[in-house]
């Protein structure tokens, strides 16, 4: 017998001993004394070993450690450690269905959010507090949303938006000396019940857990099966209709060929025949009206009707938004209170994002540009754009959102490109703002859109934005999927330029390491950007040489998988570029500047932190009430009409 076979036999023997021991434990637990006696006697006669009952000593010890660690992290205010342990050790069925557990979890999030304020009411770390507020807000928008209809918890949904909760009357109780010890007692009692080890035998535990997981898996498969059945029915219906239309079309085509052959022999085609063909081509809803209203004896009628049936529908006329007093608006944007500035920035953005694509949105954008809303051509020391440096976070965020909205439209990018100090403001904000702030996110997205223009690419490369992006992407696990995708897309755009490639060549090893690591990221949306950047920089000989020394080809081949043919094809192109002896460094500097696409996303308006107070004007009502301008063409027409009426 080989050593491998002996090892396998040993594993089987150990497993059998353990299983027999569990059976003995179960029989003893259920007090099947006669059966247990017979079982032990037969095992002994057959030479089968029984494992000794393990008891709950190990489980008790582990439970006590977990409980101790949870309470310790509660006392230390370490929210990350606490909720990691909480997620791993508190059963999902308890957290998701038990009202007491849900309430306790809610107050625990509050405890960790206000912990810096309780520890240091004066002079606390503002950045740490804001990070905890962001953590709490994320909870409220996900798991915590279930309690938003409960009166007890409703006031605390305002906590993330209160600058100083310590002085707010709604949160007075949270800062009393007795609040934290009471919460700790509740937590300790809860843990002692939930983490109490079970006395049931191991065989029963295995059966319960296995049965539950099987049941959940079965339910999930049933849901997927129902959804698949629904889709199949829909696809079969569409296929049958398409097949019927195809057969109908083939039949009509054959008849038309016969008719053309007949006309060669001098036979005439009657209007009734044409009518019959057209009716068969039209959809059933149109047939009745076609037969009643169309004169098929008129030449060209049939073909015109057919072309009209597939012509795109003309959009309905949409109303134009009223014009505004932009001078007054810009004055209040610069000199108004921070709340008014935020409300105006929000309203101006909504005009762009909520207007209908096409003529209405184009008119809004042209009005902003012609009235120089961002004061591109102003010589004043302080302009609207300086709101990017406001001390108020909401003002900065809403200014960044408005710039992102401008950058989403081709004409808006042209306008922004004419503002000399814009990129300086944006890159400065990008480096200063916290990693997951909405201000930074909107600035990043705006920069990616602006990088479609060569003049902006050049300025970004000169400002060493490539180095900053590579450092950010090195720590990709700390980035949201949204930020990760836009960072990778921006890096690729900058790497398409010769200057960008040469900038990467200055630190080729670091850049190659980061890019190849990103191919293993779970977010597959970044693959085209990462591959595009890799392919671009490998046209530089020094980068290719560094890649060969780093065995980049072997690393790339590790990512080739059968289920990803698109990725495989891209990787093969990169490897081919890597192994080429000569690579073109020129990137055709005369290439067209922009792709002229509009890129407006709904994410620009997500997570609005500014909500109007009672009877406070906001949005379009604020603009049309306080800043309504004169529509000169309308006034001229009106005066002309009155003078001649």
UniProtKB/TrEMBL annotation:
Taxonomy, superkingdom: Eukaryota
One record GO biological process: cilium assembly
InterPro entries: ARM-like, ARM-type_fold, ARMC9, ARMC9_ARM_dom, ARMC9_CTLH-like_dom, ARMC9_LisH, LisH
The keyword Cytoplasm appears for this protein: yes
Any one Pfam family match given in the protein's UniProt record, by short name: ARMC9_ARM
Keywords annotated in UniProt: Cell projection, Cilium biogenesis/degradation, Cytoplasm, Cytoskeleton
One Gene Ontology CC term in the entry: ciliary basal body
Keyword Cytoplasm assigned: yes
Residue span, ARMC9 CTLH-like domain: 65-196
Domain LisH: 460-579
Location(s) in or outside the cell: Cytoplasm, Cytoskeleton, Cilium basal body; Cytoplasm, Cytoskeleton, Microtubule organizing center, Centrosome, Centriole
Protein name, as recorded: LisH domain-containing protein ARMC9
């Amino acid at each position: 017998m080989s050593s491998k076979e002996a090892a396998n036999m040993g594993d089987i023997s150990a497993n059998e001993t353990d299983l027999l021991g569990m059976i003995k434990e179960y029989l003893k637990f259920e007090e099947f004394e006669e059966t247990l006696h017979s079982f032990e006697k037969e095992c002994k006669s057959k030479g089968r070993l029984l494992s000794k009952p393990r008891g709950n000593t190990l489980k008790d010890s582990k439970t006590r450690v977990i409980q101790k660690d949870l309470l310790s992290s509660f006392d230390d205010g370490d929210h990350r450690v606490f909720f990691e342990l909480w997620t791993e050790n508190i059963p999902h069925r308890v957290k998701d269905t038990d009202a007491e557990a849900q309430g306790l979890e809610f107050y625990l999030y509050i405890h960790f959010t206000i912990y810096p304020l309780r520890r240091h009411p004066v002079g606390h770390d503002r950045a740490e507090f804001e990070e905890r507020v962001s953590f709490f807000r994320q909870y409220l928008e996900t798991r915590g949303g279930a309690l938003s209809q409960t009166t007890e918890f409703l006031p605390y949904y305002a906590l993330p938006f209160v600058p100083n909760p310590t002085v707010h009357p709604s949160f007075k109780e949270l800062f009393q000396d007795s609040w934290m010890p009471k919460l700790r007692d509740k937590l300790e009692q809860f843990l002692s019940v939930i983490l109490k080890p079970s006395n049931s035998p191991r065989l029963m535990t295995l059966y319960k857990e296995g049965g539950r997981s099987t049941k959940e898996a079965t339910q999930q498969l049933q849901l997927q099966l129902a959804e698949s059945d629904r889709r199949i029915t829909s696809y079969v219906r569409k296929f049958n209709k398409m097949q019927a239309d195809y057969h109908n079309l083939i039949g009509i085509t054959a008849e038309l060929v016969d008719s053309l052959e007949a006309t060669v022999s001098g036979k005439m085609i009657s209007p009734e025949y044409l009518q019959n063909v057209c009716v068969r081509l039209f959809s059933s809803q149109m047939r009745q009206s076609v037969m009643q209203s169309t004169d098929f004896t008129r030449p060209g009628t049939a073909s015109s009707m057919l072309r009209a049936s597939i012509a795109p529908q003309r959009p309905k006329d949409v109303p134009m938004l009223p014009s505004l007093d932009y001078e007054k608006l810009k004055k209040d944007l610069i000199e108004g209170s921070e709340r008014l500035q935020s409300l105006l920035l929000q309203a101006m953005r909504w005009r762009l994002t909520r207007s209908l694509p096409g003529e209405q949105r184009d008119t809004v954008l042209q009005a902003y540009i012609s009235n120089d809303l961002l004061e591109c051509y102003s010589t004043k020391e302080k302009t609207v754009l300086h709101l990017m440096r406001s001390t108020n976070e909401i003002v900065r965020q809403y200014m960044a959102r408005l710039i992102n909205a401008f950058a989403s439209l081709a004409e808006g990018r042209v306008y922004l490109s004419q503002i000399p100090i814009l990129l300086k403001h944006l890159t400065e904000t990008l480096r200063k703002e916290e990693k997951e702030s909405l201000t930074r996110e909107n600035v990043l997205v705006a920069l990616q859109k602006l990088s479609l223009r060569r003049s902006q690419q050049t300025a970004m490369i000169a400002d060493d934005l490539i180095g900053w992006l590579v450092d950010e992407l090195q720590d990709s696990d700390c980035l949201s999927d949204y930020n990760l995708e836009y960072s990778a897309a921006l890096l690729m755009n900058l790497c398409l330029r010769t200057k960008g490639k040469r900038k990467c060549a200055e630190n080729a090893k670091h850049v190659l390491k980061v890019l190849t690591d990103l191919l293993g990221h779970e977010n597959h949306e970044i693959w085209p950007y990462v591959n595009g950047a890799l392919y671009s920089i490998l046209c530089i000989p020094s980068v290719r040489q560094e890649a060969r020394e780093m065995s980049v080809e072997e690393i790339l081949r590790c990512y080739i998988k059968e289920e990803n043919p698109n990725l495989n094809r891209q990787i093969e192109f990169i490897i081919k570029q890597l192994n080429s002896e000569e690579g073109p460094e020129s990137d055709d500097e005369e290439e067209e500047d922009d792709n002229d696409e509009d890129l407006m996303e709904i994410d620009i308006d997500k997570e609005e932190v500014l909500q109007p107070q009672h009877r406070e004007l906001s949005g379009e009502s604020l603009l049309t009430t306080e800043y309504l301008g004169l529509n000169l063409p309308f006034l001229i027409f009106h005066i002309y009409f009155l003078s001649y009426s």
